[in-house]
Amino acid sequence: MAKLEQLSCAKHFGGTLTKYKFKSGVLGNLDAKFNVFLPSSSAHGKVPVLMYLGGLTCTEDNAAQKGGFMRDAAAEGIAIIFPDTSPRGAGIQGEDDHWDFGTGAGWYVDATHPQWIKHYKMFTHVAQELPEVIEAAGLPVDFSRQSVLGHSMGGHGALVLYLTSLLCGSNTYRSCSAFAPVCAPSVAPWGIKAFNGYLSGGVEEGRDKYDATLLIERVRTPVNILIDYGTADEFKHQLNPDLFIDAARKAGFDETQVQVRGQDGYDHSYYFVATFAPEHVKFHARILKA
Which residues does the entry assign to the active site, renumbered to this chain (predicted)? Predict the structure, then answer.
């Protein structure tokens, strides 16, 4: 099992925010970095955890520094893990040519295209490898009480990880929330580009494995989902929240299970995320600590 190397640590709201790196076998033996916030209550035993997935161009630092999550996580006694958004330094031709594909834009899929398959496996990295490495290192995090949330590309990732776990019967995550997620990537320009690039089967493969709007149609167990998006979001044409809510309602999920809220006048930025971050932390806390 890969060993963690601590890169930094800062006291924060009575707890600690620590950055680590390790050699990721899933990502082709590249260095993988992440931040983890541990509340002070973790000194007395394992605590529930939120897995936060960042958006395009982000690293493990953006939401940790600007998301506004830790005050409420500290009060609720919940850890937060902030992974990176892609492998770094794979040396693949074209990896750094576009801001919405390649470095900083792993899209939380496991690549099947030969050009990308060795390194770009962010789904498995986040869902399996990272929790295994953290548990092996002895950090006081209880992955049996885990939820997932994310922003934009990361909102897409959070929904896909959550719904896939339900479809597989694993129930890895107890709840899911998202800020401005790409809800139907197989019909969004960003998603089409990602699926055609990373997947040998292109959009058709993406539709089957990584489109939340289509995945929720297949779920037959109860769900706990909260989505916020801004009505002034400059990328709203990429998000398609209406398609997701229509699919959820057709699948029989009412507002107690799938809540989608359009927040008047808010955009796509971390100002928007930080405004509603406390509500999202408390949404998950109610479920994680039930």
Answer: 152, 233, 268
Q: What is the pTM of this model?
A: 0.97
Q: Which of 86, 147, 152, 186 is catalytic?
A: 152
Judge whether 72 and 91 are in contact, CB under 8 Å: no
Given a cut of 50, the residues of the chain with pLDDT beneath it are none
152 among known catalytic residues: yes
Q: Are 106 and 119 in contact (CB under 8 A)?
A: no
Q: Is 233 a catalytic residue?
A: yes
Backbone angles phi, psi at 202, to 5 degrees: 60, -145
Nearest to 239 by CA among 227, 222, 253: 227
Q: Tell me which of 72, 233, 280, 284 is the catalytic residue.
A: 233
User: Strand, coil or helix: what is 68?
Assistant: coil
Query: Is 268 among the residues known to form the active site?
Result: yes
For the stretch 261-287, what's the b/e string if a residue is b when 16 or more beta carbons lie within 10 angstroms of its beta carbon?
Answer: eebeebbbebebbebbbbebbebbbee
Q: From residue 198, give the alpha-carbon distance in Å to each of 20, 112, 162.
A: 27, 6, 21
DSSP secondary-structure letter at 253?
A: -
Write the secondary structure of 257-290 as one string of H (helix), E (strand) and C (coil).
CEEEEEECCCCCCHHHHHHHHHHHHHHHHHHHCC
Which among 119, 125, 151, 268 is annotated as catalytic? Answer: 268
What does the pLDDT look like over 68-102, one tens digit per residue? Answer: 999 999 999 999 999 999 999 999 999 999 999 99
- List the helix and strand counts (H, then E) for the chain: 11, 9
